[in-house]
Fold these 4 entries.
Entry 1:
Amino acid sequence: MSRQQGDLELLGDPVAAELLGSRQPAHLAYTWTDGSPRVVPLWFHWTGEQITFGSPPHAPKLAALAANPRVAVTIDQSATWPYHVLMLRGDATVEMCDDVTPEYEASAHRYFGDEADAWLGQLRGRPMARVSVTPTWAAIIDFESRLPSALSA
């Protein structure tokens, strides 16, 4: 049985698993402090319950997330057809940490492979913010069985 868009059970779908384990960056959409929309590509780590991002502790987006934690996250594979897209919504929480977070370290290994330790060595001992989003809504577009709503009507 196909799940409805918005159902968190979609996070167990093979398309979601493919994208959550991929080396594609996530795109975090949030509202800037002046009310304008912003989107930033970020490395991510999926814990099985939350999607997490590492950030420098003084990144401007952290103030915007503190003012309005509502976010959307998209991970897509759009280099080849059929495109696969995972869309999430939820609230972001920010936690200040004294060092590289375990989730950021895991994402660095996924993105950089054997080169991750050299990258992480430059960051160790520096503070880092952990941005975590617990999805409250999920949707998949795979252009096979799930099309954008404008095409499936």
Entry 2:
Amino acid sequence: MRSRLVGQRTAVINQIRGFLLEHGITIRQGPAGLRQALPSILAEPIDELSPLLLRLLQDLGDEWRQLDGRIEHVSTQIETLAKQDENCKRLMGTPGIGPLIASAMVAAIGNGAAFIKGRDFAAWLGLVPKQISTGDRTILGSISRRGNRYLRTLFVHGARSVLFRPKSWAKYGFNPWLTNATQRLHKNVLGVALANKLARIAWAVLHRGGCYEPAFAAAAAA
């Protein structure tokens, strides 16, 4: 339900931006820029914006605010449920994994018994590279993007949140691997690679019934 509401909000934001672009008004990328600029555009409209279009933009802005409220309400419910579930609480001890990822993962795979190892779970998420074999050579391509798209997206966002806090890498046990990887990988590739690591670690935490340990993360990242 939250995913559907987020999709509806994205559609509303894109429609507002599209209407403004048609009339020569450009806003910097990201919802934050549009959220900040829209009130002033409505308060002091330019001649290119007709009264009808202004009413449409006002209605879309109201719909945006309503969707924000509904998303916040559903997110709060998810956080409450996650804090009451033992598996979710253990998963939330893993860096980059909050209530959304933890609850979605438990809802999708239970205790993870359907997978033999963490790499199988990462493959199910579509976070492993496609392999092309020619003769005695194996070429790794882009990730397969198969499997659970919603959960895969959440893990990538979780990985990016870790990358944005380099001071915490040592505490989490990621410092040697991430420090070397940042020098040779594009940030998007690195984000997916870290999402793969986090998925494998999360599966181990969930399936083995333990808690996150930085030493285990360092071994998994090696």
Entry 3:
Amino acid sequence: MPAVSVIIPALDEAGCIGAAIRSARSAGADEVVVADGGSSDGTADAARPLADALIVSPRGRAAQMNAGARISSGEVLLFLHADTLLPGGAIGAVLRAIEAGAVGGAFAVRLGVSPGASVARKALLRLTARMINARARCFRAYTGDQGIFVARGAFEAIGGYPEIPLMEDVEMSRLIARRGRTTLLPVPVVTSARHWESRGPVRTILVMWGLRLSHRLGMSPARCARIYLSGRRA
């Protein structure tokens, strides 16, 4: 069976990096590589004893994922955010998809909502996850939160992740689809809903969907990033 390397980009994620690595192990990963962007909170120290390899790279999620991919050894690459957990059997599902002819894809997503969230907020975030999954299923446009995976040959053929400040996952989805069929795996990863909760679910949904539409209509990733960062500061 092809070996699967899980690559986790991280920046100041000491509180959750251990859980992400352990979930990859439990899911059946052959190798776990952490690409740290220069954390100041001890992320590298927390990850080092748990990961097979740790590399410190220039900051930027796309650059970090490319750096991690370069030192990994697997024939299949799975990119996992540091606040996302793989379910049991995830690696087996990836391998079955690759063996069935897919060049890559991603998982369905479930948002891990904080226990103290209101009933209304939990309902809204469940709906958000369903909307993300429906978009991914219809358009094969995946987000980094969904655990994008790709055969190494296809990844290297397209030159890795485009090193742009935002929308690298959208561009990666498009580039992989040019190499062949991609698939959405029904088994869900669980990603933290902390960003939706901290910034407000409705506002975050509108901003992110608006940015994706704007990018699709031609707005540059640099401008999308400026708008996104200004919203975070606000």
Entry 4:
Amino acid sequence: MATLFPPNGLPIYLHEFKNATGWTPDEPATPEEESKDILKLFTGSIVAYEEAKPMPLDVARAAVVEAHREGRLVWAHPTNIQGVAIARDASVDVLAHTTSAPGAWSSELVQSLMQHKMALIPTLKLWKYLTEGAPAPSVGAHMVEDGVEQGREFSRAGGRVMFGTDVGLV
């Protein structure tokens, strides 16, 4: 399994791991650079508490095409609405969590996810965990509340809601 991040878009919570281990993340800038065995895409990567870096859509599409050619499912960590749109437009199969965007997702967004037959793993605990060091302590709580509403709207629209994640957060 490989994970692709946007160019210079390593999530803030992986910097310490990278520095401690010497690990080099895959951050392709063009479709030609994407040649890994894909499972997860960071279509929106949290590079700072108030900033998510989007994956270029053409890179995400190339990764999905290759993964699907190999019969693999593709998951995306969208982080924000732009990341959800990139995942949708690249034909990703599963959103690994809700977004940090305030409030519920629009009915138009939810319907477009339904049309693309995407599934959602809410992973609500993620937001509190990722925002433990945020400047405002309430940031994580608000993101959890918003994630509950996003997941609720997705489920009400008939979306496939799955449970589980790769880091043990539910």
